[in-house]
Write a sequence for this structure.
């Protein structure tokens, strides 16, 4: 009997525990349902559309400038040589000295040649006087018929020959006397001199080198790719220590230099003597150009897989006026000047080309235009005009 009573007590205790657990579960479930029903609705986070700015193609000229290194040279170089041989007796110039045309360079002692020329001149003078006297005596005899015409003509010929010999001897003498002093052939600068006192020189000896004043020339080399971009008369700019000097192409080599493989170009430059001969200078010239070209800023053109692209903004009519769709368009480009690209094909004058780069730029993306102060003012003006039109449509009794 005791055992049965114990079993009943245990059974009642187990059912009590299960009831308690069941009640607890119901309460927990009710609490969760209450929290669910009373929790405030979550706000949907709105992600703003990327903002972009746009531009349109422009029409204008574009030029590509190439800069190279050149060397300044005198446009006229004179290699001074004596016209007579002899010993250098005096030297009047030195390297770097400015000279004028006719200034003395040096004096050559050629007394031996002068003396020989004087002897020849005196001899020719005697022969000329003799021929003249002979003809003077023969003239009245010829007129009286005592001398034949043949003899008279021979006397005239002898006089003419004597006069020619005298003229040649006098020229030789004057040349020896005059050319004893070597003179500068031009206004310029003595670039170098190789004269020594008491040294013997001949008519092939180089005494000094003089560069003529006035316009200098710059020499520079270009590749076969650039040779076609230059023509005689094309402008060039020479830059030295921040100063610019204008010039023009005067000579274009027809064959490349065998050592450098470059074509030598020469251009005259008016530097007013500011740049010394032999100085290294920067030479700038237009190597490519396009006129009345379609232009876009380089920031608007992107490169992908060897091709060039731009992103076009297309407004969506169903949405606000400053919201639209992005379209990726391939374009063909020409030359560029570091700021603008020449656009050969791909866009038209009415296309709004996106300038602003964002990671959300892709075909079909939704973007909004950057509203400037003028844009906002235009929108407000349109809104005011629309309100006025609606008021006019409703009439004077609209407010009532």
């Amino acid at each position: 009997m005791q055992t049965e009573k114990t079993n009943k007590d245990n059974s009642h205790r187990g059912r009590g525990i299960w009831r308690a657990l069941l009640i607890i579960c119901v309460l927990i479930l009710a609490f969760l349902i209450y929290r669910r029903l009373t929790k405030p609705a979550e706000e949907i986070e709105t992600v703003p559309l990327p903002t972009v700015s746009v531009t349109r193609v422009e029409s204008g000229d574009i030029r590509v400038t190439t800069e190279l290194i050149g060397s300044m040279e005198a446009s006229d170089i004179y290699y001074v040589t004596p016209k007579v041989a002899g010993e250098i007796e005096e030297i009047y110039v030195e390297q770097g000295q400015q000279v004028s045309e006719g200034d003395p360079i040096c004096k050559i002692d050629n007394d031996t040649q002068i003396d020989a020329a004087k002897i020849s001149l005196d001899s020719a003078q005697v022969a000329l006087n003799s021929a003249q006297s002979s003809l003077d005596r023969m003239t009245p005899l010829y007129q009286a018929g005592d001398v034949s015409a043949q003899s008279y003509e021979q006397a005239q010929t002898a006089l003419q020959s004597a006069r020619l010999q005298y003229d040649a001897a006098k020229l030789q003498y004057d040349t020896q006397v005059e050319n004893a002093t070597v003179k500068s052939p031009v206004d310029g600068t003595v670039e170098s001199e190789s004269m020594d006192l008491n040294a013997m020189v001949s008519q092939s000896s180089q005494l000094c080198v003089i560069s003529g004043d006035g316009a200098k020339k710059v020499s520079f080399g270009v590749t076969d790719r650039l040779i076609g971009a230059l023509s005689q008369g094309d402008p060039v700019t020479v830059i030295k220590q921040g100063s610019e000097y204008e010039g023009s192409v005067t000579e274009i080599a027809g064959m490349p230099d065998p050592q450098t493989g470059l074509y030598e170009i020469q251009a005259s430059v008016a530097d007013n003597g500011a740049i010394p001969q032999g100085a290294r200078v920067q030479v700038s010239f237009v190597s490519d150009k396009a006129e009345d070209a379609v232009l876009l800023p380089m920031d608007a053109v992107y490169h992908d897989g060897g091709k060039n692209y731009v992103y076009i903004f297309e407004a969506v009519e169903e949405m606000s006026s400053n919201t639209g769709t992005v379209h990726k368009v391939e374009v063909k480009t020409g030359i560029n000047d570091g700021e603008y690209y020449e656009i050969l094909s791909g866009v038209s004058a009415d296309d709004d080309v996106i300038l602003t780069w964002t990671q959300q730029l892709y075909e079909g993306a939704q973007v909004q235009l950057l509203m400037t102060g003028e844009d906002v003012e235009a929108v407000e003006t349109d809104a005011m005009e629309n309100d006025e039109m609606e008021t006019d449509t409703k009439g004077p009794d609209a407010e009532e």
Remarks:
- DSSP finds five helices and 22 strands in the chain.
